Amino acid sequence: MLGNSVCKDPKLVEANDFLFSGLHIAGNTTNPVGSRVTPVFAAQLPGLNTLGISMARVDIAPWGVNPPHSHPRATEIFTVLEGTLEVGFITSNPENRHSRKVLQKGDVFVFPIELIHYQRNIGYMTTLLPLLLLVVRIQEL
């Protein structure tokens, strides 16, 4: 077992363990925050288990938000495929400074590991973000 996923017996591995279909389907953003994350983690794509990477599709309705959150063991990088997006993060102690930027279609942004961050659609069309999470493994000595 690694993390929360059980490693599959190598003799039972098949091509479908390395395929996920569905990121072309828009997420339903009719909820209180106006966003939907479609994850592609090891639970959805078993071939990712132990690789230290994952992906997601994030749909954000006009004026919706992907609420503040952090990834304790991962760095996040994404590109804006559609829409206009305000992104921001809070720096670590002792400053706790808010940094923000407005992104347009084609822009790429990265959130460093552990920092609290958010994305907010400030346009009139749904924003689409494919994002990649890169897990940093800290080895015990």
UniProtKB/TrEMBL annotation:
Belongs to the germin family. Oxalate binds at N66, H71, E76. Its main location: secreted. PANTHER family: GERMIN-LIKE PROTEIN SUBFAMILY 3 MEMBER 3. The keyword Metal-binding applies. Mn(2+) binds at H69, H71, E76, H117. It is found in: Secreted, Extracellular space, Apoplast. One of its GO terms (cellular component) is apoplast. Keywords: Apoplast, Disulfide bond, Glycoprotein, Manganese, Metal-binding, Secreted. GO terms for molecular function: manganese ion binding. CDD domains: cupin_OxOx. This is Germin-like protein. Residues 21-137 form the Cupin type-1 domain.
